[in-house]
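Quick question, first post here. What does this chain look like in 3D?
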Amino acid sequence: VLEFFLGMDIPCCDAYGLSETSPMVTCNYVGHIQPGTIGMPVIDTEVKISEEGEILVKGPQVMVGYYKNEAATKEAFTPDGFLKTGDLGEFDAEGNLRITGRIKELIITSGGKNISPQNIENSLMFSPYINQLSVVGEGKKFISALIIPAFEVLEPWAKENGVTFADRSELVKHAKVQALFEQQIKAFTKDFGQVEQVKKFTLLDREWLQETGELTPTLKVKRRVIAVKYADAIEKMYS
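> Answer (accepted):
Ran it through. Tokens below.
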């Protein structure tokens, strides 16, 4: 979206902040707009990344604490006074901050590796054949994915490539379709580390909806609901 507006010479500046930082921590600005990032820390603001990858903030705009809730206030800050944002992030070579996920959504593998599923999902969503997905693998040796194809793209591809099918359930199980998605996953995760590679996947034939409980009102995937509803499918990828 940002690149679309920039292409029309309409400057748009991304910024990042929380209610607890009233409200800005970093921002891009005219003359320094870096798509894919949320810019550099604003004046008098210190931002660092914890060992777990969490964005930590200290500055005059950071709250003193939660009203009449000392326990929550203590939990919200590090011993040296940095606010724990709950967001995962990283700095690029120029010092611009990039959000990579939420710390509460981290997947911890059986080998103790912390993996941000959102980072991988965002990359895979660039595939024209993928409509929705959820990366899984909590407590497992490797990560996998539940994927709902973009059927409006997949079905014409199938017909052009000699794939016959009676319905979508049959389509997603076809060997050529499985091979296509294996290629797509490799192509769109090639820049990730070994532990972040999606080793197995399952194609589903029904879209996730708010009405059926898989999506929030803002259309975000409910990971816990997905984990329960598709527990059998997930376990099959690890059996």
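Helices lie at 2-7, 70-76, 117-124, 151-160, 168-173, 175-188, 223-229, 231-236.
The chain has a mean pLDDT of 95.
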